[in-house]
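About this split. The held-out portion is used to measure sequence recovery: a designer receives only the C-alpha cells and must propose an amino acid at every position. Recovery is the fraction of positions where the proposal matches the reference. Here is one held-out target exactly as it appears in the evaluation file.
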C-alpha cells in the first residue's frame, strides 16, 4: 500500500520575537502563509518493523536526523504501530532557506501516515504531535495561512491573502535558524504590527499586507549576508510591491499583483541569484483589482 502527500513551503508575512523563555525557546508571533513550491513525499507500507528514508538531495540526511523520519518514529511509538514505512522525499524546496522545508516534510509525513496506518487522528492532534518534532511543524500540518504564537506551535488560522504572485529568491548560502535566534539583540528589535497584519488578512487588504511585511530576524541575517539586501533592492527596482526575508533567511520574497511583473523580477534576478521561483499562495481565491 502506498500514499503520497505534497509538502509545501511557507513564507513569513511577519516574524516577531518577544522574549527568551526560561526553557530557552524564544516566544514568537508570526503570520505565515503557504506557497505552491512543494516537496513530494511518498509513503510505502512495509510489513517489517522499520522506517526507511530515501532522497536524492545531498543536503538532507537520509537517517533518523531527517524530520520526516522523526515524524514516522513519533507516530509509530505513540500509537504502537508494528508495521513499517519507506519514505521517499523528492525535494523541491531549497534546504536551510527559511522556507520550513524540513518541517513541511515532517507535517506531510504525519498527514500521510495518519491515512496509511488508518490512525484517525484529527488535524489538531496531528499539529500537537508536530510540535514535538519542531516549532514550525504544527503550522505546516494545516498548510494554510495562520498566526503562530508560543514557540510557533499555537496556531490560529486566518484567511489566505488576496490572490497575488510571489517571487522567491534564495542566495547560495544556507542559514542556521538556531544561530540566527541566538544572535538576535532583543533590545534592538522593532516589532512588526502583527495585529494590523491579521486585520489586513481579514479584510483581504493587499496594500495593508504589503505595508506591514516585517521580520525582526533581518536584523541578524542582513548584515551577515549582503546578498539578501541586494536581492531585496533588485526586486523593488524591478517593480515588487513589497519584499521581505522569510524565516531566518536567506530566502527573500517579493509580492506583485500581476504575473508579467513577477516575470520581470524573475528575469532581473537570473544570473545574480542561483535559485529563483515564481509561485502563488495557497488558498488565495479572491482576485485583485
Ligand atoms: P525553518 O524555516 O523551519 O527554520 P529552514 O527552511 O530554514 O527551516 P530546512 O530546509 O527545514 O530549513 O532545513 C534545516 C535543517 O534541517 C537542515 O540542516 C537539514 O539538514 C535538516 N533537515 C532534516 N530533515 C530535513 C528535510 N526533510 N528537509 C530539509 N531539511 C531537513
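Reference sequence for scoring:
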Amino acid at each position: 500500500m502506498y500514499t503520497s502527500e505534497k509538502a509545501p513551503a511557507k513564507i513569513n508575512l511577519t516574524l516577531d520575537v518577544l522574549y527568551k523563555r526560561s526553557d530557552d525557546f524564544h516566544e514568537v508571533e508570526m503570520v505565515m502563509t503557504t506557497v505552491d513550491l512543494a516537496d513530494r513525499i511518498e509513503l510505502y507500507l512495509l510489513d517489517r518493523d522499520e522506517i526507511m528514508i530515501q532522497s536524492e538531495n545531498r543536503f538532507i540526511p537520509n537517517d533518523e536526523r531527517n524530520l520526516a523520519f522523526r515524524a514516522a518514529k513519533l507516530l509509530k511509538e505513540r500509537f504502537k504501530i508494528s508495521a513499517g514505512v519507506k519514505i521517499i522525499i523528492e525535494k523541491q524546496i531549497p534546504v536551510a532557506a527559511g522556507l520550513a522545508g524540513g518541517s513541511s516534510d515532517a507535517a506531510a509525513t504525519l498527514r500521510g501516515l495518519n491515512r496509511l496506518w488508518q490512525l484517525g487522528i484529527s488535524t489538531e492532534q496531528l499539529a500537537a504531535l508536530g510540535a514535538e518534532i519542531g516549532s514550525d511543524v504544527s503550522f505546516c500540518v494545516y498548510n494554510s495561512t495562520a498566526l503562530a504564537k508560543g514557540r510557533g506551535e499555537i496556531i490560529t488560522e486566518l484567511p489566505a491573502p488576496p490572490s497575488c504572485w510571489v517571487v522567491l529568491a534564495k542566495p547560495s548560502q544556507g542559514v542556521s535558524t538556531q544561530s540566527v535566534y541566538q544572535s538576535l539583540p532583543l533590545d534592538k528589535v522593532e516589532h512588526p504590527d502583527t495585529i494590523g497584519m491579521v486585520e489586513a488578512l481579514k479584510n483581504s487588504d493587499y496594500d495593508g499586507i504589503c505595508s506591514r511585511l516585517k521580520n525582526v530576524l533581518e536584523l541578524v541575517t542582513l548584515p551577515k549576508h549582503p546578498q539578501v539586501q541586494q536581492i531585496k533592492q533588485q526586486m523593488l527596482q524591478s517593480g515588487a510591491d513589497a519584499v521581505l526575508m522569510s524565516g531566518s533567511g536567506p530566502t527573500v520574497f517579493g509580492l506583485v499583483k500581476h504575473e508579467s511583473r513577477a516575470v520581470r523580477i524573475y528575469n532581473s534576478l537570473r544570473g545574480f541569484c542561483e535559485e529563483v521561483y515564481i509561485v502563488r499562495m495557497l488558498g488565495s481565491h479572491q482576485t485583485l483589482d
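Annotator remark: The two ends are 47 Å apart (CA to CA).
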